[in-house]
Amino acid sequence: xxxxxxxxxxxxxxxxxxxxxxxxxRLARLRNRMRQQDLDVFVAFSPENxxxxxxxxxxxxxxxxxxxxxxxxxxVNVLRRIDATNTLLRSCSRRVVSYGDxxxxxxxxxxxxxxxxxxxxxxxxxxxSFFVSARxxxxxxxxxxxxxxxxxxxxxxxxxKSPEELGCIRKAARLTKAAMETAVGMAREGMNENHIxxxxxxxxxxxxxxxPGLPPFIVSGPRTSLGHATWAxxxxxxxxxxxFEIPGVxxxxxxxxxxSGSVGEPPTAMRRLEEAVVDSLELLIREIRxxxxxxxxxxxxxxxxxxHGYEVGHRSGYSVGVNYAPDWxxxxxFSIVEGETRPxxxxxxxxxxxxxxxxxxxxxxxxxxxxVTGTGAEVVTDFSxxxxxx
Length: 390
Fold this sequence. Notes:
With 390 residues, the chain is an alpha+beta fold. Helix content is 34%, strand content 22%. The protein has helices spanning 20-36, 47-54, 85-88, 105-116, 134-144, 154-159, 163-186, 193-207, 268-287, 294-307, and strands at residues 6-7, 41-44, 66-70, 76-80, 95-99, 123-125, 148-150, 217-220, 241-250, 253-262, 317-324, 327-329, 335-336, 349-352, 355-358, 362-365, 368-372, 377-379, 388-389.
């Protein structure tokens, strides 16, 4: 079925997140990878990848969306009709094939690919995406058969951030700091953690932050020992542990930071763990540099915790950049963990998260977002690293 590709005209209703030269360079890098893998067409499904390629930005990615890239023409986004305006009026490519609510989007996508691809063309397609069900992927496979080639081409390109992307992360880090100062400044005996959460959201949004892929984590009392707990109306009491993990976001790029504290002087066990956590954080920052192998750096942190008498059971950090729910991280692209044998490269960005949960009592995590430079790691988040006392 021959489809009509709708093209946006006239001025954009809002500025692009990045320069047109930036988008042209991204597309050129992707096409180079397509040629290396002998692909004529590439299809991206992940909202992060579609945003990175075209600037299309919408939280409605639970509906099927795709970006179809050929070796010559501008990308075409396949979108639910009501969301097509986000490409037509504010994207770099401004080309859309839309589907209605009674249409099967994968049939529309297959029609478009058949229109754009010659017989026998090899079609690279993301086979690892949160928002394409197995049933729908089977529709595409039934339509296009052996021409489909699983290909995760964009993710490795996203790992190395450009100067424009790094500028967004630095700005996001400043919003994180302002919100962290707000949270710590409000925390005190008798304060409801919900009120702190509201103030953090206000500090982020009024400062210019967009919505993060995960909420800020604002927790007090024994619930701090639960992974990824959020505010639940607890009123801070003397002796309570308190944790804040806050994500500033600019142009969808995130710079998170985690801090731990206590209402009044923390117990000795928290102080002992604080020493180990800060020690490992500073070790990670010292060890990260171009050429260093991720698992080697992780092992050094694990050994450092062991020297303090603790056993670590999770990764030391994860890549961050473009973020949409259900996550603000890019840990699926690169985590600092056992088995990760790739080296660090300049332009990578990581959230370093050394820490230990001690259920049902407390957690101590003290984190930073860092940029890998030509010589080491630049810390872009900024707040005192010790336990805060409120």
